[in-house]
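tool=predict chain=A
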Amino acid sequence: MRFFILSFLLLFNFAFTSAQTYTFDLYETSGGDYTVAIDIQRKQITASKAGSQIFNYNYRKFNIENGTGVIGFSFDDRYSVIMRPDHDEHYFLVRKDAIFCSTSNASQEFYFKPKNTDRYIVTYQSLLNGLTDSNASPTPQQSNPSQNLTFTVGGVSFTMVYVPGGTFTMGATSEQGSDAWNDEKPTHSVTLSSYHIGQTEVTQALWTAVMGSNPSEFRGDRRPVENVSWNDCQTFISRLNAKTGKNFRLPTEAEWEYAARGGHSGGSKYAGSDNINNVAWYYDNSGRETHNVATKSPNGLGIYDMSGNVWEWCQDWYGGYSSYSQTNPKGPSNGGGRVNRGGSWGLNAGYCRVSDRDSFTPSLRFFNLGLRLAF
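tool=predict ok
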């Protein structure tokens, strides 16, 4: 069984070491020295013991867990990308201080420590940098500005940012700390297909161009529209689609959070920074009103105001989380409230975090409720 599990580790033909192969010298806590090599060009994990190759396995995909730097490799599409020892799954994790793996049913776990801590940290950081290089692997991906799309309606232009699909950990990840609420738990792995999302919140100029009127309390063409219900948003989107021939919609809750985190590049408490004042208009700095969109710094995908300014309606009914991995989730089939995300000008910093969740009845209008488009 130990030999089988070590086959969960690695193998590597050292004659073919390259700039995209990262080699770790390790010892197993129950005894024995091992060499682990990860070739991110070939997507290959290999291991040897005392100079003898014992395993060679190709991984399917990987993810870097927001806030922790844990790199998780998936060997089978049936399993989630980030896996923890408390899951009944096999997993291969590279941490900042050790490497873990387990059998397919988690009946045995193996814990590998670095023989030389300083050298291990250098190799770990090099691996992390290599994986985040979009030329090394499709995961993580970065948004390509050339794939952004700009539309004009009634003389008002707006841009939709391309968000490459991928897998991320949704919910109260470690950087959220003690601010996280129970409804942000448990964290869970979510895989999304590629999509587009609004570079900014829908402005009053765009709403007026489509609807012919402006319901907002705080007036200004470049300010986000507010005082709109979820039902109002559906009417707006229907009319916008009729004018453009497109299929705009509200983002799902998962799409919203993934985009707010900057896709795979996430790891900040707020959308683009751990310093809320860099990226958000909220209670402490707003002067108790909305502000023109795109006047704070964008996040890693080039998206503005996903923290603060106005709460943003999502498509989903509000519901609890589960620990199961999901693909393109759309939320519950029914409920009492629709999800809104991002906090607003009138709320404190805790409500502006990327994982914070709220909901209201779909008919509610309020002067801190707005929207962002997706398709």
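The CA atoms of residues 98 and 213 lie 59 Å apart. The first strand starts at residue 21 and ends at 28.
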